[in-house]
């Protein structure tokens, strides 16, 4: 047996032992390396913005505009969101994705006001790098994704 073959076997056994020891470490928040490369599983910090966080509301307004214009050929826009309040935080069991549920009143550019329900969830944004937003405007859920009456968008 050659020295190179023995070295490869010793190296692979050492690597396997190291990985098995690392897999039994204590629970802690994921490091930058783990979030980007290691992918060892979800470790949530429960860091989510508040319901009235301006970038979250801007994301809702932009996504509503994209949906209405691009899919329904509509000129409807959300011009503001009023009476914002939190309805629930972390309503489910441990180890589920942390979410903050909110509701308010969406003011549409046609002059009507509709209830809006949305959730801000940790690590559900673009490729899991930041928070994400799911929303439903009652009466304007044209594809019934959250039907009936946006019930699926609520806790």
Q: Could you explain the architecture of this structure?
A:
- The protein is of the alpha+beta class and 155 residues long.
- The protein has two domains: 3-38; 54-153.
- 30% of the residues lie in helices and 24% in strands.
- It has three helices and four strands, in the order H-H-H-E-E-E-E.
- A four-stranded antiparallel beta sheet has the order 1-2-3-4, with helices on one face.
- It is elongated.
- The model has no long low-confidence stretch (mean pLDDT 84).
Which keywords apply here?
3 helices; elongated; four-stranded antiparallel β-sheet; 155 residues; 4 strands
Produce a short descriptive summary:
With 155 residues, the chain is an alpha+beta fold. It has helices at 3-22, 32-38, 54-72; strands at 78-89, 99-108, 113-121, 132-137. The relative contact order is 0.13.
**What summary fits the major beta sheet?**
4 strands, antiparallel
Mind telling me the C-alpha Rg?
A: 23 Å
**Percent helix:** 25-40%
Strand order of the largest sheet: 1-2-3-4
Q: How many β-strands, per DSSP?
A: 4
Structural domain tally: 2
Share of residues in strands:
15-25%
Average pLDDT, rounded to a whole number, is: 84
- Low-confidence blocks of residues: none
Compute the number of helices.
Answer: 3
User: Structural class per helix/strand content?
Assistant: alpha+beta
Give the overall silhouette.
elongated
- Determine the N-to-C terminus distance: 64 Å
- Give the ordered list of helices and strands: HHHEEEE
């Amino acid at each position: 047996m050659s020295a190179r073959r023995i070295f490869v076997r010793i190296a692979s056994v050492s690597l396997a032992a190291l990985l098995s020891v690392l897999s039994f470490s204590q629970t802690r928040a994921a490091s930058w390396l783990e979030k980007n490369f290691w992918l060892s599983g979800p470790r949530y910090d429960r860091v989510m913005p508040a319901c009235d966080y301006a970038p979250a509301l801007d994301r809702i307004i932009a996504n509503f505009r994209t949906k209405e214009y691009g899919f329904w050929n509509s000129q409807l826009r959300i011009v503001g969101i009023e009476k914002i309040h939190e309805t629930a935080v972390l309503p489910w069991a441990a180890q589920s994705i942390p979410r903050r549920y909110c509701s308010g009143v969406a003011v549409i550019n046609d002059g009507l006001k509709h209830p809006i329900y949305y959730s801000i969830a940790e690590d559900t944004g673009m490729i899991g790098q930041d928070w994400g937003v799911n929303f439903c405007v009652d009466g304007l859920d044209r594809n019934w994704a959250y039907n009936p009456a946006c019930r699926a968008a609520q806790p």
